Structure to design on (253 residues):
């Protein structure tokens, strides 16, 4: 409760300081609008349902891309962890690609798919799959040998050993990978939508920028940050914490 109050007070101070600085320094709204101006732009955007449609469209793309990424990441992570040749070859490529920002893939996505949903989904998948793969690989590699030996002494081996012991033991890493994948996918989605032709927060952000609507630009940036924070805190952090407690990796106090 205290941490929540601290966060609220912190952001209240920032908003008041922002409002005061803009008014005192008489900064042009085209360069830096006041919080009240940003709020007014957001209220208009929600009133005519434009921002609601944008949020729904963005989440639809994100859900599709992130779901595919998690499935691909789990499969690739298992492959790298269980196959040494794949780990030494494909694993090296995945590590190299992980250092490439998602926005760099935009020109390729446009040339391959055009300015459409497929290009944006492709960027989202790339943004999340790699980090999910790496975490899944680490999770399987870090399964305690004691678990494996104990299961083997009871006759478990092969697929049965993997399904009942190795994979369940790697779940905390998979959850962490999904959480990081969400963050990477969300950023990649915004980058992809900037060059898209349909509704979405990124598209409206670019549209507002082209017409010099700085109030809406900053407002959408705030929405993007707020959504990212809320989803991470209210969903992924809770899921990750519950999984860690259940697996005995974090205190329940």
């Amino acid at each position: 409760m205290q941490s929540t109050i601290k966060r609220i007070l912190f952001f209240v101070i920032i908003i008041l300081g922002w409002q005061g600085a803009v008014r005192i320094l008489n900064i042009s709204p085209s360069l830096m609008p006041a919080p009240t101006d940003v709020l007014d732009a957001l209220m208009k955007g929600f009133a005519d349902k434009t921002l609601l449609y944008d949020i729904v469209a963005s989440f639809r793309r994100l859900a599709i891309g992130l779901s595919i990424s998690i499935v691909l990441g789990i499969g690739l992570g298992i492959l790298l962890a269980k196959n040494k040749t794949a780990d030494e070859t494909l694993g090296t490529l995945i590590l190299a690609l992980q250092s490439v920002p998602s926005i760099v893939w935009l020109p390729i996505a446009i040339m391959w798919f055009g300015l459409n949903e497929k290009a944006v989904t492709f960027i989202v998948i790339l943004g999340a799959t790699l980090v999910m793969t790496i975490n899944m690989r680490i999770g399987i590699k870090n399964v305690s040998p004691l678990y494996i030996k104990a299961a083997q002494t009871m006759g478990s081996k092969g697929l049965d050993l993997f399904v009942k012991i190795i994979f369940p033991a790697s779940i905390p890493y998979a959850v962490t990978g999904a959480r990081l994948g969400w963050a990477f996918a969300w950023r990649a989605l915004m980058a992809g939508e900037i060059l898209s032709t349909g509704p979405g927060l990124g598209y409206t952000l670019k549209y507002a920028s082209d017409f010099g609507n700085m109030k809406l630009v900053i407002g959408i940036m705030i929405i993007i940050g707020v959504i990212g924070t809320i989803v991470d805190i209210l969903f992924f952090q809770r899921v990750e914490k519950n999984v860690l407690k259940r697996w005995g990796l974090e205190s329940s106090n």
Remarks:
- The chain has eleven helices and no strands.
- The two ends are 16 Å apart (CA to CA).
- The chain has a mean pLDDT of 89.
- Residues 45 and 51 are 5 Å apart (CA to CA).
